[in-house]
Amino acid sequence: MMTTDVLLRKESGLGRIILNRPRAINALTHTMVQLIDAALVEWADDADVRAVLITGAGERGLCAGGDIVSIYEDARSGGSASLDFWRDEYVLNARIARYPKPYIAVMDGIVMGGGVGVSAHGSVRIVTERSVVGMPEVGIGFVPDVGGTYLLSRAPGELGTHIALTTARFGAGDAVHCGFADHFVPSASLDDFVSALSVSGLDAALSLSTAAPASSLSEQRSWIDSCYAADSVQEIVDRMRDHGSTEAKAAAEQILGKSPTALTVTLRALRQARRLPSLEPALDQEFRVANAILRSHDLVEGIRAQVIDKDRDPHWKPGSLAEVSTVDEYFADLGARELGLAQGEI
Q1: Are the CB atoms for 331 and 80 separated by under 8 Å?
Q2: Which pTM was predicted?
Q3: What is the pLDDT of residue 2?
Q4: Torsion of CA 19, 25, 28, 31, to 10 degrees
Q5: Sign of the four-CA dihedral 182, 186, 187, 189
Q6: What is the dihedral of CA 318, 321, 326, 332, to 10 degrees?
Q7: According to DSSP H, which parts of 167-322 are helical?
Q8: Which alpha helices (H) appear in the chain, and where do they start and end?
Q9: SS3 of 63, please?
Q10: Pairing with 168, which of 18, 135, 140, 176 sits 20 to 30 Å away (CA)?
C-alpha cells in the first residue's frame, strides 16, 4: 500500500502521523486507516518512538471524517467495501484508546466523525480556538460510530444525546467539558507545541496550554437534561416543544429534519453504550448497526441529499418517528461476522 494521503515518519523521538488530503479536509480512506494502524503496531515496540503525534495538513482541520462518496457508491451497488473499511477503522480506534505510549492528537480546525475516532480516543487531546468538533452522522441517515456512542454517552448529563440527535457542532470549551479533549492550546502556539514536544517532551509542550473557553452547552444543562431524559425520540421532541426556551424549540426542529430511523437507532445505541464497561463493546455494537444501515434506504438517501445532489431535501422511509415500529434488527448479533473487540480480537 503506497499513498501520500498519510505521511508516516519517525522524528525526534516522535511517531508522526500527518493526514495529508487537505483539499478533502483530510478525510480518511481505507488505505490511510490500514497504514496508520500498521505504523502504530510497529511503533508500539520501537524504542526510538516515545510518543505518537497526529496532525492534519492544511489550514482547514484535522479530519472531516470518512470518504462519504465511496460509502454512497458502495451502498447503492450492494457492495461490502464499507464494512471492510469500518472493521479496520474500529480496530484502529480501539488500538488508539489502548496505546501503550502517549498518543497526542492536535484537534485543530474541523474534526468530524472519523476524525473524532483518530483523535478523541487518544491519551492527550489538544483543541484550539479554531476547533469545530461534531458527530454529524444522523444527518445522512447513519449513526455516531468510531466509538462516538461511547464518548457521547459519557458526556455530562444528556449533552451527548443532544449532540448526537441534533448533529450539533461544538468548539474547544464544549469539547473539553464533554470529554472529547483535554487541553486548550492557542493555534498561534501549535508550532511551538510540536517543537517543545520533540525537544523537551510532553510536560514542556503542555506548559503552552491555557484555560479552555467556557462551555456554552453546560449553560443549557437544565433544559437539555430534562428534555433528553425521555425514553423515546418522539417524547424528547414533545418535551422540547412544550419547553419555554427558544433553544429547546430550535433543537426540536433540528431533530425532526433527520432520519426517523437513524434517530431511533442512535438513541437506543447511546442508552446501551452508557451501560457498557468499555470502548470495545461499544465499537462491537456500532459495527452491528453499521452492517444493517449499509443496506438501508435512508443512508443512500441521506448522502444523496447532503453530499451528492446537495438539495438538502432527503425523503426518509419511513417518514416520521411514529412510523418507526422496531429497530431490533440493527442490534442483531452478526455471528461469524462479529467485530469481536470485546473478546480481545484486535
Answers
A1: no
A2: 0.96
A3: 75
A4: -60
A5: negative
A6: 80
A7: 172-177, 190-199, 202-206, 221-228, 233-242, 246-256, 260-274, 279-293, 297-303
A8: 30-44, 68-77, 81-97, 114-117, 148-153, 159-166, 172-177, 190-199, 202-206, 221-228, 233-242, 246-256, 260-274, 279-293, 297-303
A9: strand
A10: 18
Evaluate whether 215 touches 168 at the Cβ level (below 8 Å): no
How many angstroms separate the CA atoms of 257 and 316, rounded?
10
**Among positive and negative, which fits the CA dihedral 289, 291, 296, 298?**
positive
Residues noted as catalytic: 66, 114, 137, 145
Name the residue among 115, 107, 100, 108 with its Cα closest to residue 51.
Answer: 100
Separation CA 220–CA 80 (nearest Å): 41
SS3 state of residue 292? helix
CA-wise closest residue to 208 among 181, 189, 187, 194: 189
Which residue has 489538544 as its cell numbers?
A: 126
User: How much is the pLDDT for 346?
Assistant: 62
| pLDDT tens per residue, range 31-41 | 999 999 999 99
Convert the pLDDT of each residue in 65-107 to its tens digit. Answer: 998 999 999 999 999 999 999 999 999 999 999 999 999 999 9
How far is the C-alpha of 340 from the C-alpha of 283, rounded, in Å? 9
